[in-house]
Amino acid sequence: MHPPLSHARRLRPxxxxxxxxxxxxxxxVFASGQTISGFECPSVGGxxxxxxxxxxxxxxxxxxxxxxxxxxLPTEGTRFCQLPAPGGPSSPAFAGVGNPSAxxxxxGVSQMTRTFVATNSMLEIDYNWSAPPGAPxxxxxxxxxxxxxxxxxxxxxxxxxxxxxxxxxxxATFGSPPPNATGIQTATATVPxxxxxxxxxxxxxxxxxxxxxxxPISFLNVDALRFSAxxxxxxxxxxxxxxxxxxxxxxxxxxxxxxxxxxxxxxxFAFRLSSPGGALDNAGFALIYTPAPTGSLPAxxxxxxxxxxxxxxxxxxxxxxxxxxxxxxxxxLVPQLVPGGYTFGPFNVPAGLTGISAMVQMFAFAxxxxxxxxxxxxxxxxxxx
Length: 385
Prior knowledge:
The chain is mainly β and 385 residues long. Helices cover 0% and strands 36% of the residues.
């Protein structure tokens, strides 16, 4: 059994020559976010519905890139979805850019929804809007509360009468792109804190104003809906090693998912040390932390080597080793990055730590990753309130 943080042995300064690697062309810490759904099934709104999307009105259709002249779509997989903007006596007028108060729409539009549990505070969706200049057409992509249809956030909205649109774009089903079209866009929306862990709904709508039937001449094209990749606050060197901090048994979300964790007296916390992609499974590692007053963490230092980013967040003069099995495994009895992760803890927060932070980082044996075979995880700040 390894000692708790308060009794861990102090690292000799020379030992932090761990901060020595040049990052070659490794994986980025800004990797793509987790995809919620695309349109990789052949239809939308059927049974089962296409990746969870449900058509509530109109005739959205799933298409492949070969079926339509479209620059840049699909952004993921081989299919995307096209919502033609229908017109007619029941088609509602657009409420105006920045004013989604007209939602929900009952008829006269192409509309589809995707309901899911929000586990991250940031969402992204890829879209494209094509419309001839001056067309009486509009679109909205909204985040709503499925319990009462209240609009929580607006991904994107616009109308061809007032919204400046530029080439290149995605053409209609009848040929080349119209004169006025957006390029591929990625729209974002923030999930309110109260809805993390709750069901939310994304709504895509396209319509045309008018009292007589207007053949669809404008199209909202959408593809992958995903949780945003949240850039870490304390990035490491991109190696396949990760420190996940859970508090009271709850995995991190929001700011905690980026590396900042608030703890109070009596809370429990634990670490799951892993190689998410499996590249460093069964590798040895060192888990190290630096204590400092909250708000006064040490500045990061670069790994030794010309031009490296600063990716070591441990102060070599004030570092404490929690576990150290760094190097090739010598025994199955010593802690390793076992497949699925090595859990360390939980620990209870004692009294008397208010105003103190602990910056935690892992250094893993990564053969061939860089000249010294060291991978550095993102840093995790524990802030004791």
